[in-house]
Design a protein that fits this description.
291 residues; alpha/beta; Rossmann fold; 10 helices; binds S-adenosylmethionine
């Protein structure tokens, strides 16, 4: 197949694209320096024993001492929103960011080279609008992560009955009604896994999941018994796209255990952390019902 170089016109559908000129530009040169060669990454020892896995730890994920370094292939989570849900403390923004940074550093430690951290977050409020996604990029890059993409999780199709439009049919104070949340995708040290493994994603799902907008209906809080669960289906899509069969999947804010169920359904091992005894119990119960 012919290769094109970076040009004003992009590449045609049938040509593969040589992007080296783009990545050699000053835009990229000094921003990200942490990519390691696959050869070097393969020298980093990945622990094989798993006796700490397939457990829910009822502890803060700021210190995941039970998990050894370089052991986890993929972490997927939605952090506490700090907006007054049952489990939320009333933290100031800086205190909240410190928590997310501490957890990000721990996730970085336990991820294997080329391991991914996918963080589900919604932006908040309107007066002002708090762009959490933007703050979370800063926090995770500070912890050492390389950003590798962003998925818009579209939870509803629109016209969803919400009437929080600010001023009706007037430019006085119209407000946007969010139909979406974000999945921020980060990686440790490399954009490709240096090791080989079995992928179980179908052709059609791969085509769909590599598009940056995902349509997945939300989960019912009442049904699950947690105020802010994400759907198991969302976690399954992340898991099949970003991990191999038999990998270990971590959720550092596991809530009702949705990520763990998704891992088990897809022949992966899991590990979850939550500080709430109540949610640890719900997660264990849901997992046991699945087993
Ligand atoms: C948005 S919820 C996660 C919901 C989960 N994705 C689900 O599907 O059920 C965030 C969770 O973080 C937990 N949490 C808050 N601070 C924590 C900490 N320091 N360490 C571990 N978990 C924490 C809360 O108890 C809450 O269950």
């Amino acid at each position: 197949m012919a290769k094109t170089r970076t040009s004003s016109f992009g590449a045609g559908k049938r040509e593969s694209h040589d992007a080296s000129l783009f990545y050699d530009r000053n835009l990229y040169k000094h921003l990200f320096s942490k990519v390691e060669s696959p050869k070097k990454l393969l020298q980093i020892e990945v622990p094989q024993a798993r006796k700490w896995a397939n457990k829910i730890y009822c502890e803060s994920s700021e210190n995941m001492k039970s998990i050894p370094d370089n052991a986890i292939a993929l972490a997927f989570t939605s952090p506490p929103y700090n907006v007054g849900k049952d489990y939320d403390d009333d933290m100031g923004l800086q205190q909240y960011f410190d928590l997310l940074l501490n957890v990000a550093k721990e996730v970085y430690r336990v991820l294997r080279p080329g391991g991914r951290y996918v963080v589900n977050i919604a932006n908040l409020g309107r007066k002002p609008y708090i762009p959490m996604n933007s703050f979370l990029y800063q926090i995770h890059m500070q912890a050492g992560f390389l950003p590798m993409g962003e998925i818009i999780w579209q939870k509803a199709k629109g016209a969803n009955g919400s009437c929080a439009w600010g001023s009706w049919k007037s430019a006085k104070a119209p407000r946007l009604r969010d139909l979406h949340e974000y999945l921020l995708v980060f990686t440790k040290l490399a954009y490709a896994r240096p090791d080989r493994g079995e992928s179980d994603i179908s052709r059609d799902e791969f085509m769909e999941s590599t598009l940056s907008v995902w349509n997945v209906p939300p989960e019912s809080a009442k049904r699950v018994g947690h105020p802010a669960p994400f759907p198991v289906e969302l976690a399954e899509r992340v898991i099949r796209l970003y991990s191999y069969v038999n990998d270990i999947i971590l959720d550092p804010f596991v809530g009702s255990g949705s990520t763990c169920i998704a891992a088990l359904k897809n022949k992966r091992d899991y590990v979850g952390y939550d500080i709430s005894k109540k949610y640890c119990a719900i997660a264990r119960k849901r997992i046991n019902q699945f087993l």
